[in-house]
Amino acid sequence: MDTRESKTPEEELEHFKEVSQPEDFEHPEPDEDQPEAHQSPQRLTWVLPVLIVIVAVVVIGLLVIGLSD
User: Fold this and answer.
1) Which UniProt key words apply to this protein (predicted)?
2) What is the rounded distance in angstroms from the CA atom of residue 23 to the CA atom of residue 10?
3) Among 11, 49, 66, 67, which is disulfide-ready with 7 (CB 3.0 to 4.6 Å)?
4) What are phi and psi of 4, to 5 degrees?
């Protein structure tokens, strides 16, 4: 691991060239070929609708209690 704080001008230029290159879509990263990379997360898809329903019930309950006083 390189622990130096500053780079030589040649190293900075090489780093800039690597970073500024566009992504190569014809040769994807190795982990993009894995099936997990293409699957959507199935575990948490129900959390947002349930959370919206809970918040709606609480807000409506607070409005009803507030209006009845």
Assistant:
1) Membrane, Transmembrane, Transmembrane helix
2) 23
3) 11
4) -65, 145
Domain ranges of the chain: 9-68
- Angstrom distance (rounded) from CA 14 to CA 64: 65
Contact 37, 31 (CB under 8 A): yes
- pLDDT value, residue 45: 77
Question: Both tokens of residue 7?
Answer: 């780079």
Residues 18-62 have pLDDT tens digits of 777 776 667 666 666 666 666 666 677 788 899 999 999 999 999
- Going by C-alpha positions, the residue among 16, 17, 29, 11 that lies closest to residue 2 is 11
Can you tell me the distance from the alpha carbon of 13 to that of 9, in angstroms, rounded to the nearest whole number? 6
What the block records as the tokens of 66 is 């507030």
